[in-house]
Design goal:
Radius of gyration of chain C: 27 Å
Oligomer: heterotetramer
Distance between the termini of chain C: 66 Å
Number of helices of chain C: 24
Radius of gyration of chain A: 21 Å
Distance between the termini of chain A: 33 Å
Number of strands of chain C: 5
Structural class of chain C: mainly alpha
Strand content of chain C: under 5%
Order of helices and strands of chain A: HHHHHHHHHHHHHHHHHHH
Helix content of chain A: over 70%
Order of helices and strands of chain C: HHEEHHHHHHHHHHHHHHHHHHHEHEEHH
Number of strands of chain A: 0
Chains: A mainly alpha, B mainly alpha, C mainly alpha, D mainly alpha
């Protein structure tokens, strides 16, 4: 394999992980971690300039280019955030240097796994990558080694591995469907080949396969009723990991699902996967929206909101059609930006207040104006209020599907409204009213948070044509 | 010759399903572990047979992994854990064994219908093997769902994974089978579960997941 | 012609972030309000110029922002120009008022940035010419006003008000979103021009009408979707309350007019029944609720519901006549509605400013704690009095003219063929008449209790006159009320192009008639001349006073009040707000508020005080909103169990899902 | 030339109502007294009262504001203008088009608005009672009369009093149910608005029963005189309103000769006297109601008026 941006994309994290595992001092490791993430980002950006050749194992196309850049970008900003976050954690002695070393190594491994999952052209390889990503996050969720953290990790691990198993079974079935057409060997697992030849596959077998894939990768996406691991993993892990989970890992799993959906779409005769996705999406939206109302833990609340948004996205892709798919992609991108920004804010807030319990946080806009208003802005963005970007994607989703499926869309809209109610009910307490809890100035790095929010704001007002063009191509491919 | 191939393959696959049923039936940990060893052994045999028929030497690795690793090492390790943690030997089941069996039968029927009736297109051998594999997977899930005790759940999970390996090997010429089986067995079954068991051991005196699940996420305050 | 407007809007938008640092400085608020005053006045003049001169041709422009492949379309036609005038008239007045009022703001950082943004939002709604920019601006307007509502966030009820407000606002926006979803379909042709060309089928159009009525109605405060309004409007700083009540509700009406009269094409006859059926009750109930309030600003907010009801009655009539192709009557009804929109914007802002000045001077919104302010703040009292007379629809002020026109339209409705309308319109007319009378009662109470009589509390006794900017704003609006009242013809003529564009017909030209009379249909049928009435009253009044002072006595002595011989120095003896409205509550309350009076009179000799307790219910809230809240509590309670299952149970969920899906495939 | 004549007739009208109003009141009082077998005050007593009040000093409460002092003039002006726009002996007044029936009622409404404010200005208990009861009555009476006007206007096809009068005088109008209802409704409203028995008793100062008198309790001297005069004007206005709508006979056509005017004047006085007699008889033969029976009394008017309008809507002929 010739050395190009693609390999660099995978090598940098691996090497970094190896080095980080050896270095003791956390300042150095944090810096190095940041540096590695930056280089990965640069490499990813270079994909737009020179497009490397796609082989049987790795590929780059419109679909994953965007995701790679997004992933590496959020990965980078998160590493910036995590530097200041982890510093604070060590000061208050929640983490020992050994664990920080482990943490950084794992962070890079996770980056590697996600990049691999995104660039993999071989569905087996993609499966392996997703699995590795899951396992690393399991370890990171458990890193605080508190009762709750371990249990959250355990829950995540068990449910995750079942998901992995189902996904593998689905993958095998796809291979079985492909083999008679393509013949034995690796080619029958190469995605590009599969899409090209999908027309001749046995549709029924593909249907069964998609059921398993939907459930398997759907577990990672966090669709109800497979979501159970998600809220606790978000709530108990270190906040940078919550950001990465919501912002990236869910996307990666969804990305895998999309790849298979494209195969399904290519093979007529197979039941369109749409209905399944629409139903699961709606269930997730309504369920998560209702769950928001009883939350007492701020990170867990936003985790549920992630479930809700994944539901919206899956709904959009399930509905299909150029507009809806475009909106779905846009929503994915903006959601990961917004949600990670929110988690940055929440992380610092939790550190300032020394708790994640909503009941003990209050009047943030008075005590910590920047954090408080940042959180408000993030919440405004995430519930889909203009002029921030998510309004645009929700506008497109609803307006383009309502004419086709009035009742389903009405349910979706209801879910969105309920979610808004739930989030703001808590936000009012957290951001406004008389200040509560500890009040100390936050030593926070605001840059990542506001960078993300600025991007989301920009997306709501002006989308760069290049992005639009890329998304439109993919939207057409998704059918 | 071909007929024989099929028959042996089916025989082994079928007996794997049977072994799953035996797992489902057990209500004592040690017996469960022994049956699991048997389960893994049968798997090893069928994988080996596939290796033989498909002339795919790399499958022998998978077979040997299954044999050494799942049939011997893991049962022994779990045996140790049970002894060390002094877990009492009975398995509390959520559902009475009888009902579980009926459910299991239903699942097997379901997988047969799905694989044989619904997908006439695919080639016969693959479909039948897949049918067995699917039922093993479903039975494994059923075990995880109906057992209240960590060890037995782990066992359920591993039997599920055996089903996967069966499917993978039955899929003629599928690449990465070895890697996958390695990934699964080594990575998941042993290290991580081991780590977790020990971590948990540090904190509680039992691996009964019931104790784990006292965690209600937010049980700290009224909800 | 549209560019100056857009540039001014851009200026407002730019002002918002600039206000964040400015809020730190002492003079910051003056700068912000001054700038927004200039910008809004510019917009107002641009729009007025456009409406008066060449408004028949519309200016449109497309900017490369907003939805890709569509861009943001903006258009300045007659309708938009009129509403621009309304919006920016209110905006300019509010900015002027803010110049003085803003000084007393304790947390300017929470008001200054959002104020210009809010103005900009309302302007963009009116200017937008495609569904996306329209909705963005619409929701942006709600968002910024929400921020202003929670600006005094330390009072818990303000935050709650903001919460209810934001929920209802998003509800309305989503309804409109669905409306556009129906109109546009999957085509992605979101610009109004395309929608206009689409000619939807009858069913689609009807669905859109209902959705638009829900969406715009909830923002305008139509009953029963009004619940947020009396909470949110009083919670905001007073000049913002004035904007919300006087202007934003009008922007909502604009949305309705734009969709129903412009985009939907020819109406069905029964649409008007829906609109009338909502508008009439809103008018009467709104003012009844207003009568029951003690809180000045809340009473004003409820009276906004009343006026919006009147506007929608006008629009409903216009729809009915348009559907029957009676263009000239439709024009009459439509013009009446528009004129009332304009008038209400003027006097409602004025009244809120007055309430704001009182709030500043005394720190009280509760009428029971005021009184005698006419002695302490005479100028505010004059402005307030004018506002009260105007909103009570009494000649010679502007409120009367628009209601008079509405009545004229009702008087022509027997010619409508459909029986449903024949039955509903007289009822609506009765409701309007009732609303007018009750409004007078309501504002006698508001002005009488808070400004007349003797001060009930020390704060009221120590009140100080408002600053000059506030007074300037109030008197400017008061003058507007009078001018619009005595020269209605000019305003009606100015509205002609709008009516022409929306209902395809316009009222006869008025300014050419002698003595500036207004004649909606024919001289023999009905006519009104505000100028003459005003001069007559003025003349006869002054003649009388002069004559009497000359010929009879002009001597005057001060003495203690007579009061039938039982004068009591204690101000508590005065009629309170509640006791004032008690007779009316007894007449209407038993049905509408399920009001009960429990009086216990202790037996002779017992020392315990007699007490009268009154309990009233907000039936709409209790029957419509409370159940939703309850069911949500119940539902979330139940579903929340899913957070606390064991891993095994979660696995069971996965397992069941898998089996179900396989079964779906198998069967 | 005609313009001058019209101006004159308009001016005559204004003076006429001003002069006639006290007379009518006096006439009714006298008649009531006679019916009660009392001597009663002389017919011209009201004029004397007014004169005397005019000449007396004003005794103003210390707590009264400037508004309190200008309100009498506002009320007087409003009522006077309203009264002078109702055709009396001749229809087609010069300025009749400057305010139609609705506007006239609204003018009275503004007069009442200010009267109610006056009641609250001094800050006494009784003033409050009066105002709050007054607005309660008004809140029912105004819709009643407005809807009556709707009914009449729909029949006559105009809200313009002179045109209504002409239409009613013409043969086009037959006997109509809706008209009858309108008449009853209008009469009830007229009684309520003028504070006559059974709604209110203009002759009492029994505190708890009074409405109108309670509001003007603090007034004295010329202020009181003006208020008295305007209430007398109001009575005259309502009477001539009923007269011109329901008994339009004999009123002089516009631009008619002076003979016609004489006839008009004669018939007009006749109508006034007839109405006065009826009013007196009615008042003496009925007792005053409790305050909270009044809504029911007015409710009748409201219902009748609505019914009349409805009939008018659903069938052109009724």
């Amino acid at each position: 394999m010739t050395f190009d941006a693609l390999t660099a994309l995978l090598l940098i994290p691996v090497v970094a992980a190896a080095i980080l595992a050896l270095l003791p001092d956390y300042r150095v490791t944090a810096a190095l971690n940041l540096l590695a993430a930056l280089f990965t980002l640069i490499t990813a950006a270079s994909l737009f300039v020179v497009q490397p050749v796609s082989g049987r194992y790795l590929l780059v196309d419109d679909l994953n280019k965007v995701f790679i850049v997004l992933t590496t970008f959020v990965g980078f900003t998160t590493s910036v955030f995590s530097a200041s976050y982890i510093g604070h954690e060590i000061e208050i002695g929640r983490l020992t240097p050994t664990f920080v070393r482990f943490y950084h190594a794992m962070y890079q491994t996770l980056m590697f796994a996600m990049n691999l999952a995104l660039v993999a052209n071989n569905i087996g390889l993609m499966w392996v990558a997703v699995e590795v990503a899951t396992l690393t996050t399991v370890l990171m969720v458990g890193i605080y080694r508190t009762h709750e953290a371990l249990e959250a990790a355990w829950k995540y691990f068990i449910l995750g591995s079942v998901g992995i198993a189902l996904a593998l079974f689905g993958t095998i079935l796809v291979y079985m469907a492909a083999r008679p057409v393509i013949g034995e060997g690796t080619d029958a697992m190469v995605w590009t080949v599969l899409v090209a030849r999908a027309t001749q596959f046995d549709p029924a077998l593909l249907n069964v396969a998609f059921v398993f894939l939907l459930l398997g990768y759907g577990t990672k996406v966090g669709l109800a009723p497979l979501h159970a691991w998600l809220p606790d993993a978000h709530a108990e892990g270190p906040t940078p990991i919550s950001a990465v989970l919501s912002g990236l890992l869910l996307n990666v799993a969804l990305y895998a699902l999309l790849r298979f959906k494209m195969i399904m779409a290519a093979c007529e005769g197979a039941i369109a996967p749409g209905p399944l996705m629409v139903v699961m999406g709606l269930i997730s939206v309504i369920f998560a929206a209702l769950m928001l109302y009883r939350r007492r833990d701020i990170k867990r609340m936003f985790a549920y909101s992630s479930i809700e948004h994944m539901g919206i996205i899956v709904f959009a892709f399930g509905m299909g059609g150029a507009l809806a798919n475009f909106a779905g992609l846009l929503h994915m991108t903006l959601h990961s930006l917004t949600k990670s920004a929110i988690f940055f804010a929440v992380g610092h807030i939790a550190q300032v207040k020394g708790t994640q319990k909503i009941a003990d946080i209050g009047g943030l806009t008075v005590t910590n104006p920047v954090l408080g208003w940042g959180l408000v802005l993030g919440a405004v963005a995430i519930v889909g209020l203009p002029p921030l970007g998510i309004f645009m994607s929700e506008f497109l989703i609803v307006s383009s599907t309502f004419a086709r499926q009035p009742w389903l869309t009405a349910i979706l809209v209801l879910g969105i409204l309920i979610a808004l109610g739930g989030l703001f009910m808590r936000l009012n307490v957290v951001a406004f009213g008389e200040p509560k809890g500890l009040t100390k100035p936050a030593e926070a790095s605001y840059v990542p948070m506001f960078t993300h929010l600025a991007l989301v704001l920009m997306a709501g007002i002006y989308l760069p044509p290049a992005l639009v063009a890329g998304f439109s191509n993919v939207a057409r491919l998704l059918g | 010759m071909h007929g024989l191939e099929f028959d042996v393959a089916h025989l082994l696959a079928g007996s794997l399903v049977l072994a799953s049923f035996m797992l489902l039936y057990q209500d004592r940990l040690y017996a469960l572990l022994n049956v699991y060893a048997l389960h893994a052994f049968v798997l090893a045999l069928s994988v080996a047979w596939q290796a033989f028929v498909q002339h795919a030497p790399h499958l022998y690795i998978t077979a040997s992994i299954a044999l050494i690793f799942k049939a011997i090492v893991i049962p022994v390790a779990l045996h140790r854990i049970i002894v060390k943690l002094g877990i009492h030997r009975e398995i509390e089941t959520a559902l009475s064994v009888g009902l579980t069996m009926i459910g299991g039968i239903g699942l097997v029927a379901l997988s047969m219908v799905v694989m044989l009736r619904v997908t006439p297109g695919a080639d016969a051998l693959a479909r039948e093997d897949l049918a067995f594999a699917l039922s093993v997977v479903l039975l494994g899930l059923l075990i995880m769902v109906t057992r209240r005790n960590a060890v037995s759940q782990v066992v359920g999970f591993m039997s599920l994974e055996n089903g996967l390996v069966l499917a993978a090997t039955a899929a003629k010429g599928m690449p990465l089978v070895v890697e996958i089986s390695v990934a699964f067995s080594v990575l998941i079954a042993f290290i991580v579960i081991g780590i977790f068991l020990f971590r948990i051991r540090e904190r509680f005196d039992s691996v009964d997941i019931g104790a784990l699940d006292r965690f209600r996420g937010e049980s700290g305050y009224d909800v | 012609m549209i560019w100056p407007a857009l540039w001014s809007v851009a200026g407002l938008l730019a002002l918002a972030p600039a206000a964040i640092p400015l809020a730190m400085y002492k003079r910051g608020s003056a700068v912000v309000y001054g700038a927004s005053l200039i910008l809004t006045s510019t917009l107002c003049m641009v729009a007025a110029h456009n409406l008066l001169n060449l408004s028949h041709l519309a200016w449109s422009v497309t900017l490369p922002v907003g939805l890709p492949w569509l861009g943001a379309h903006f258009r300045l036609d007659a309708l938009a120009s009129f509403f621009l005038i309304v919006v920016n008239l209110g905006g300019a007045a509010a900015s002027l008022f803010g110049l003085g009022y803003g000084r007393h703001e304790q947390s300017p950082g929470r008001v200054l940035p959002f104020f210009p943004a809010y103005l900009a939002g309302m302007n963009v709604v009116v200017l937008a010419d495609d569904a996306f920019s329209f909705l963005v601006a619409w929701e942006f307007m709600s968002l910024t006003s929400w921020a202003l509502v929670v600006s005094h966030h330390r009072e818990a009820e303000n935050v709650r008000a903001g919460y209810v407000y934001l929920l209802m606002a998003s509800f309305g926006t989503l309804a409109l979103l669905l409306a556009f979803g129906v109109l546009v379909g999957g085509s992605g042709q979101y610009d109004f021009a395309a929608i206009r060309g689409a000619h939807p089928t009858a069913n689609v159009a009807s669905a859109v009408l209902l959705l638009a009525l829900i969406g715009a109605g909830s923002k305008a405060g139509l009953m029963p979707l009004h619940a947020w309004l009396p909470l949110a409007h009083p919670a905001a700083p007073s000049h913002v309350s004035g904007l919300m009540s006087g202007v934003m509700t009008k922007v909502a009406v604009y949305g309705f007019v734009r969709i129903v009269f412009d985009l939907l094409g020819p109406p069905e006859w029964w649409w008007s029944m829906v609109v009338l059926g909502v508008g009439g009750p809103s008018a009467t109930l709104g003012v009844l609720y207003a009568l029951m309030q003690r809180d000045m600003k809340r009473a004003l907010a409820y009276s906004t519901i009343e006026n919006i009801g009147i506007v929608f009655v006008g629009l409903g009539l216009a729809l009915a006549f348009k559907a029957e192709a009676m263009g000239w009557v439709a024009a009459l009804a439509f013009t009446a509605a528009l004129l009332h929109i304009f008038n209400h914007a003027a006097f409602k802002s004025l009244l809120f400013f007055g309430a704001g000045s009182v709030l500043n001077a005394t720190g009280e919104r509760d009428m029971e704690k005021l009184g005698g302010l006419i002695h302490r703040m005479p100028q505010t009292a004059i402005a307030m009095l004018i506002g009260c007379v105007a909103i009570s629809a009494l000649p010679p002020f502007n409120g009367f003219v628009s209601e008079w026109l509405t009545f004229q339209a009702i008087l022509l409705s027997p010619q409508l063929p459909s029986w449903g309308l024949k039955l509903i319109i007289p009822a609506v007319g009765g409701l309007l008449a009732l609303a007018a009378a009750l409004a007078a009662a309501c504002f006698v109470k508001l002005f009488g209790v808070s400004f007349l009589g003797r001060a009930r509390t020390p704060v009221a006794a120590e009140a100080r006159e408002a600053d000059r900017f506030s007074l300037a704003a109030m008197f400017a609006l008061a003058a507007l009320c009078l001018v619009a009242g005595i020269f209605p013809g000019l305003f009606i003529d100015a509205l002609a192009p709008v009516a022409k564009a929306m209902v395809g017909n316009s009222m006869p030209h008025q300014a050419s008639l002698e003595w500036l009379t207004i004649v909606p249909i024919a001289e023999s049928r009905s006519s009104y001349n505000g100028l003459l009435v005003f001069t007559f009253v003025l003349l006869s009044g002054s003649i009388a006073s002069v004559a009497i002072h000359r010929l009879a006595s002009d001597r005057l002595r001060r003495a203690p009040a007579w009061d039938c011989g039982y004068p009591d120095p204690n101000p508590a003896i005065q009629y309170t707000a509640d006791s004032f409205s008690q007779p009316i509550r007894r007449v209407f309350g038993t049905v509408i508020f399920a009001a009960r009076e429990i009086g216990d009179m202790p037996p002779p000799g017992s020392a315990s005080p007699a007490r009268l307790t009154v309990e009233t219910h907000d039936l709409i809230w209790e029957t419509l909103y409370a159940p939703i809240g309850k069911s949500m509590t119940f539902l979330t309670e139940r579903i929340n169990i899913l957070q606390f299952l064991t891993i095994r149970r979660y696995l069971t969920l996965v397992f069941v899902a898998l089996v179900v899906l396989l079964l779906v495939l198998a069967i | 030339m005609t313009l001058i004549r019209d101006l004159i007739s308009q001016g005559l009208q204004m003076l006429l109502v001003l002069l006639l109003a006290p007379l009518l009141t006096g006439f009714v009082r006298k008649l009531k007294a006679q019916l009660l077998r009392r001597q009663g005050p002389p017919l011209l007593q009201p004029y004397r009262d007014l004169m005397r009040l005019m000449r007396k000093d004003v005794v103003l409460a210390e707590t009264a504001s400037w508004l309190f002092r200008i309100i009498p003039y506002i009320i007087f002006a409003g009522t006077w203008v309203a009264a002078s726009l109702v055709p009396t002996f001749g229809s087609g007044l010069l300025f009749s088009w400057s305010a139609d029936l609705i506007a006239i009622i609204a003018l009275l409404g503004s007069a009442r608005f200010f009267l109610a404010l006056a009641g609250m200005d001094v800050g006494t208990a009784f003033g409050g009672i009066g105002s709050s009861r007054e607005v309660m009555i008004a809140s029912l009476a105004e819709p009643a009369i407005l809807i009556t006007v709707f009914a009449v206007a729909m029949i006559a096809g105009s809200t313009q009093l002179s045109s209504i009068a002409e239409y009613m005088g013409s043969s086009a109008v037959g006997l109509r149910v809706s008209l009858g209802m309108a008449l009853v409704a209008l009469t009830i409203v007229a009684i309520a608005e003028n504070g006559r028995i059974p709604v209110d008793n203009p002759a009492t100062h029994l505190e708890l029963t009074m409405v109108h008198e309670a509001m003007v309790l603090e007034y004295s001297g010329r202020h009181l005189a003006l208020i008295e005069l305007s209430s007398q004007l109001k009575l005259l206005l309502y009477v001539s309103l009923i007269a011109c709508i329901f008994m339009p006979w004999g009123a002089a056509e516009p631009r008619a000769g002076s003979l016609a005017f004489a006839v008009g004047a004669f018939t007009y006085t006749g109508k006034l006297m007839a109405c006065g007699v009826l009013l007196a008889v009615f008042e003496t033969s009925i007792a005053k109601m409790r305050v909270f029976r009044i809504p029911e009394f007015l409710g009748v008017a409201l219902m009748l008026a609505l019914l009349a309008t409805l009939l008018r809507f659903v069938s052109g002929s009724l």
